[in-house]
Amino acid sequence: MIRCAPAILALLMLPTALRGAVVPAADPVALGFSPARLMRLDRFLRTEVSAGRKAGVVVLLARHGQVAWLKAYGVSDLASARPLGTDAMFRLFSMTKPVTTVALLTLYEQGRFALTDPLDRYLPAFSHMQVFDGVDAEGHLKLVPARRKITLLDVLRHTAGFTYGYFGDSPIERGYSAAGVDYRQADSLRQLVERLARQPLLYQPGEHWEYSFAHDVQAYLVEVLTGESFEAYCARVIFGPLGMHDTVFGIPADRAARFATLYAPREDGSLKALRGEEDWQQHFTRRPFGGVGLASTAADYLRFAQMLLNGGSLHGVRILGRKTVELMSADALPAAVSTWQEGIRYGLGLGVLTAPTIAGVAGSPGELYWPGIATTWMGIDRREDLIALLFTQYTPKDERFVEQFQALVYQSLD
């Protein structure tokens, strides 16, 4: 076995957050990591914090079902200089989405629906949908009937015709905001989805991939199909069985002190703390949504990611069947439909890296991933039997930082 310098051994010591964890820790050398190359990642993260670009970061790397590295950098809050711990809580935002898809697919496995079923079989408000077809000379919307019904498969793969009101400026997206199709304006999943159903579709079902409120429709389907709240169903079927005891919606009072502060960049590059109304997470404490709202720790989210990497089970607890996870992990899009980036496709609730060189990121073909807008990121590489988690609280998502992290993770493999 390669002998490590004392400084490297100290770097790789098992953090207290993993004692008694479901996913055990092991020597990174035995798991195929180069300690010297891991130090490159360590220096990069130290520099990111010391330069004031991030307040704090938690990184977790696991391989072959064991944790190779879990480390926290910087502080949880700049004003108080409170050190960031490996058990810190992070706002996941869109990393809620894969959890929502898993919740709905547990019902698919019970025969509650078929992927080809029309959405209006379960949510009649989505019958007779109209589709945006431009604007007339006076600036009024032109609408045409949908050529086919929205299916549950469309809802699971972002091809339903929905959009978000946050990233574009089309008349449909402006209409979402005016109609209260907005996380900050909605008081429940039901209200959000009912408002969504009254809006025209941005495109014909199945003909385009568009990031959207689809996961909130998924979450509401869970409620309609079970008669149980989405929050309670996730706790009973996913979080409890997997031992994810620190995965919650919003910022519960009993965990508030463990939350890292959310930051955004000022014009001069310094960090501005987002508090009060600027921090959406408080809104989600009593309003669980399917597209955003979860908070978790690195160790907790590892349990979820490891379950997916294992084909649906973790240490004898099965959440999904192996073939259902294969369904989630495969490219679900028609050949003519593209995502937001070449080399990346979409499965059910997860991005699928199909061509790393075309996408311009380090990784393996078939790698699964998903990010959050506060610069959280999960990668599941089945070829390397590797999970990489990056948690910080910086919005909007720092794409370059995530890509640098990916490169440094992969270069550390022996």
Let me know the average pLDDT.
Answer: 94
| Share of β-strand residues | 15-25%
Radius of gyration: 21 Å
> In which order are the strands of the major sheet placed?
3-2-1-17-16-15-14-13
Number of strands: 17
Number of domains: 2
- Write the CATH architecture name of the largest domain: 3-Layer(aba) Sandwich
Element order, helices and strands? HHEEEEHEEHHHHHEEEEHEEHEEHEEEH
What's the CATH first level of the largest domain?
Alpha Beta
Summarize the topology.
Elements: H1 6-11, H2 35-50, E1 56-63, E2 66-77, E3 82-83, E4 90-91, H3 97-108, E5 130-135, E6 141-145, H4 152-157, H5 171-178, H6 189-197, H7 214-226, H8 230-242, E7 248-249, E8 262-265, E9 271-274, E10 294-296, H9 298-309, E11 313-314, E12 317-318, H10 322-329, E13 344-346, E14 351-353, H11 356-359, E15 367-372, E16 376-381, E17 386-391, H12 399-411
Antiparallel strand pairs: 1-2, 1-17, 2-3, 4-10, 5-6, 7-10, 8-9, 11-12, 13-14, 14-15, 15-16, 16-17
Helix pairs in contact: 2-12, 3-7, 3-8, 6-7
Verbal overview:
The chain has two domains: 6-91 and 242-411, Beta-lactamase; 101-226, Beta-lactamase. 29% of the residues lie in helices and 18% in strands. It has helices at 6-11, 35-50, 97-108, 152-157, 171-178, 189-197, 214-226, 230-242, 298-309, 322-329, 356-359, 399-411; strands at residues 56-63, 66-77, 82-83, 90-91, 130-135, 141-145, 248-249, 262-265, 271-274, 294-296, 313-314, 317-318, 344-346, 351-353, 367-372, 376-381, 386-391. Strands 3-2-1-17-16-15-14-13 form an eight-stranded antiparallel sheet, with helices on both faces. Strand 15 (367-372) and strand 16 form a beta hairpin. Residues 1-22 have low confidence and may be disordered.
